[in-house]
From TrEMBL:
Recorded family membership: Belongs to the cation diffusion facilitator (CDF) transporter (TC 2.A.4) family.
CC terms in the record's Gene Ontology section: membrane
GO molecular function, one term: monoatomic cation transmembrane transporter activity
InterPro entries in the record: Cation_efflux, Cation_efflux_CTD, Cation_efflux_CTD_sf, Cation_efflux_TM, Cation_efflux_TMD_sf, CDF_Transporter
Signal as UniProt keyword: no
Domain (Cation efflux protein cytoplasmic) ranges: 223-300
Residue spans crossing the bilayer: 16-37, 85-104, 124-145
KW Heme (keyword) present: no
Full protein name: Cation diffusion facilitator family transporter
Taxonomic source organism: Halanaerobium congolense
Amino acid sequence: MNILTEDIRAKKANKITWIGFFANLILTSVKLIAGIIGNSTAMIADAIHSLSDFTTDIIILISFKIVRKPSDKDHNYGHGKFETLATTIIGIALFVVGIGILYSSGENIYSAMLLKTNLESPRIIALITALLSMITKEILFRITLKAGEEINSSAVIANAWHHRSDAFSSIGTFIGIGGSILLGDNWRVLDPIAATIVSIFIMKTAYGISIGSIKELLEESLDDSTNKNILEIIENINQVISPHELKTRRVGNKIIIDIHINVKNNLSIVEAHKINDEIERKIKKIYGDNTIINIHTEPEDE
């Protein structure tokens, strides 16, 4: 299994992020203008959501500038945690955006339904813009997700889901604005109701993005299935006895494995070293050439 170098990963991540950055720049401006001219709180909320994409794009660009640096005396395992940290920040930022939209739309619903305040009817320009945003954001989601999977980047994949949450936001906005326009004055509250539903989707997406990266920052082990597979690979290598004390964790796009094995007492250091080399070769074949494996070899009777 061949792994891209950090420099190539950074270049690919930067390229797709810059594409998203300029697309967001244009889209946010159009949505904000359409929301103001079109009297749509849902569209303005949608524009604010898109505005948050600028922050996450900048975070990714900065993080990959650090990630591409080689290991040094202060970061012996590389700078992969910066990518994980970027993913966490994206998730938290997205969650905050969701809360903000929920609060704003909740105020409008309260005003319309309890205080009987008349809400302005959205205009057709807001409806057209919502449709444009849906299409644009879905395209951005697909190309960003593809790039993120190609370079195995949790931060880029998280940013892709940020685009998808924006697409969902625009779908809700489209339904709310369309309902407000087509059903008349009594249904203008559909606009902020749509914004409320969208905010829930956004917070759900944010939680999914954040929880995995937070676990990684807290040094959580790899999942049970992966740990079991690692042990099976090692157990099936000739002359390995009782692999034990397996410890695993993830740093950016690489995994780190610590394992103890027993070998026959009469093996020479050279023979034991060859066994360790075989373990490393087979593990890296499955989990990538950048996998870090620390093997503690013990005599059989220890």
